[in-house]
């Protein structure tokens, strides 16, 4: 287990003192690993992954390498935290669709943030939108929740760069979709944060992509289910078993 000191990035961040996290991440995103906190089961620590090594041509430029490392490890995190802080004043209409931000962490493995875990009613981590579709849990109620989420997403002031099926989860307690990653402008020049019209246009495109991905994955999941049913019926027929009642055919 690792002992990691927590440092505040602003006055609104809460200090948790020293925390103990799991040696191995319990989940992994595109840019961060997620760790459990042993004495705070309702919290998670998301740590920025190390940036990939620069190309050989740039390695001789030490200043550029340091600037690149600082940008990859620090700037996206700072912009995300500022986004959490900015929308905190918008009330429940905004915060109900965002994972609760707790604090910023400086760790042995890199910079990270402490957030409140979104869990299922059985205590496990909430399923992502992709998992809901894959495992057959996506229904009319969750589709309505997704519509509400995307309507909020497009019309809110939040700046988001990378939103997809794996960082939207379903909160079974509030029956809402929650965004757990991807907020803040990740580009070198934060144009979406500067220009609200550009931000809205980008979010409309993201929402359209999510609808398209949901349709494709839902269709794939149902086709696989139907193919399995057909396979079982074929196998039952081949072995003389009536699948409908589990008994052998008469005669």
TrEMBL record:
<protein>
    <recommendedName>
        <fullName>PhoP regulatory network protein YrbL</fullName>
    </recommendedName>
</protein>
<dbReference type="InterPro" id="IPR019647">
    <property type="entry name" value="PhoP_reg_network_YrbL"/>
</dbReference>
<dbReference type="Pfam" id="PF10707">
    <property type="entry name" value="YrbL-PhoP_reg"/>
</dbReference>
